[in-house]
From TrEMBL:
Residues 19-87 form the HTH gntR-type domain. This is GntR family transcriptional regulator. Keywords: DNA-binding, Transcription, Transcription regulation. InterPro entries: GntR_C, TF_FadR/GntR_C, Tscrpt_reg_HTH_GntR, WH-like_DNA-bd_sf, WH_DNA-bd_sf. Pfam families: FCD (PF07729), GntR (PF00392). It comes from the Bacteria.
Amino acid sequence: MMASPTEEPDSALSRMPRQRLYEQIVQQLLRHVETRGLAPGDRLPPERDLAATLGVSRASISQALVALEVLGVVSVRHGDGAMLLDRRSEHQVLTALRSHQARLPEVIDARAAMEGTLARLAAVRRTDADLAAIDAALDKMEADIDAGARGVDGDKAFHAAITAAGHSPLLARLMAEISELIRETRLESLAQPGRPRESLAAHRRITEAIRAGDADGARVAMEDHIALVSDVALNREHDPGPHPEED
């Protein structure tokens, strides 16, 4: 018997999540791993080949690989491509991706609150040694970007140097507690086109405010930077469209 229009909807049913393009590509990559019998240490095909085979842009392939990198399924290195680190089922990966996407806004809020405060404190408390460590991190990130990479290690060193310069043991412990979540946002942000140099420029603005002893300026510069970090493809409503001709 058909349900009447006035009956309550079946509570056992729920809306299907809309699958984004990068999730579809992730599924295809996982199936490739499965059918080819790839093991940890094996490499995936180059991005250009994957884009041509799947009929999508390289930007979409890169987005899917970043999603897998965040979960520790692959490692992506400039010049080396993507290497498999861990084999997982499609269900495990997609569930983890959606969980990660759901908590991104909360992670960004926590970073803005803590790192904005640390930048403000650093402007007041920094020592010459702290400034030297910050400058060294900037140099490291710039050299990495100039070499064609994303500047991940330099970015990590910069934020660690700011935390140290704040001389707040409690905030430093709290930052350590969310270090893995910060790593995820770092990987996602620096994978965005043009983002490494944008982040480097933001780091320099933060540094100059700290060097000048401008506490409010340092806080605002850091909060602006974290807002930039939050603008990642995995957190947007729409994916880049299928344009296989793009490089």
